[in-house]
Amino acid sequence: MRHINYLLKPVTIDNAKPRDKAYALTDGGGLLLEALPSGTKTWRFKYHLNGKREKVTIGAYPAYTIKQARDRHEELRALVERGESPAKAKQSSVAARKVAESRDLTVRVFARRWIDETLFYRSPAYVAQIVRWLDAYIDPAIGDMQLADVQPGDVLAIIKARADTPVTAERIRVIVQQFYNHAIRNLLVTTNPAQPLRGAIARAPVQHHRHLSEKELGAFWRKLDEQGAHVTTIAATKLLMLTMTRKSELLHSKWPEFDLDAAQWDLPAERMKMGKPHRVFLSRQAIELLRQVHELTGHGEYVFPSIFRGSVPMGDVTLNHFFKRIDFGVPDFSPHGTRSTAATLLREHGFGRDVVELLLAHSEKNATVAAYSHMELAADRKRALQYLADRVEALAAGMNVIPLRVA
Questions:
Q1: What pTM does this model have?
Q2: Do residues 153 and 255 share a domain?
Q3: Burial profile 60-73: b = 16 or more Cβ within 10 angstroms, e = fewer
Q4: What value does the mean pLDDT take over residues 137-152?
Q5: What is the CATH number of the domain that holds 269?
Q6: Least buried of 74, 77, 348, 366, by fewest C-beta within 10 Å?
Q7: Domain span at 306
């Protein structure tokens, strides 16, 4: 190789001050020191190979001294002389280092890293659920295996053990697939052991929660007070319908979230499925129920505390069992069905899709629409929930009302 008369001296480098834009100090033979606006100075090597111009980073100054940078420059020049690309060689070296790193990573460790790096925007409840799935199903089987050693057969064994609950089996497979996709993006592995197993467990068709017709809704409402249940259980059931919230959102509600004088309930983002705060405009009937409940539980934190342990909220199973006891001619009605019942009633009586979707706290699936839609429609939502409460009250009274449709 041709000898290089290097030009740069320590004093020249040290006196180079940052500017608004990056600029280069040429040392010779394609070796240069790039001075960045941040004040960082980085050694780079620019060269031509096979008619193309390429560049490779050597390292930062002064971590790489002038002598070290020039020694490395000579090594890289030798590669170019042999027709080899220093840039591609560095990429291969990084990839090899990543693979070696994966050999020291267990599934258990990397799965938690995946959570930290990709699920930070999800609600604490969602993340906690993922951790529970890892703890219960994935870690006991493959948690101590090296990330790169897991094969499709290992994942298949996990989901086959859950074949009697196919929804659970598929959720396990999806979680494994997700954190392995993250490992692939980080060049830690090259294959995903869960990807080929899609469809390995047959799932029954999705059954949507049964909603009630208006006649059935009236019968359901009349039966609520005849079941001999605790007053807070009955109130929670009614408020589930009147607020159109999810079961967990209602049962974990706390008194400071409510402003009964303003007829508002503000749910914090961390308790919402979509991770966004949600406001419920309370109807007159909902406020009346909440004032009655406040006389019983207002001294505590939770609106609906456990009957047996007041320091924790009412359990989901309480409402589930209560719904099963209600004999009004529809045996398969569940707490979640209150949302679809309320939504269907409002849509049938002229309330628009946008209003109903906001009441349900659904997230807009179309990213473009979501980016430009900031509608709150507060007045329409308030009117819709009051209309819902009035209609339920009329149906429960057995009134043969033909309501006016919303214009």
A1: 0.54
A2: no
A3: ebeebebeebbebb
A4: 93
A5: 1.10.443.10
A6: 366
A7: 214-396
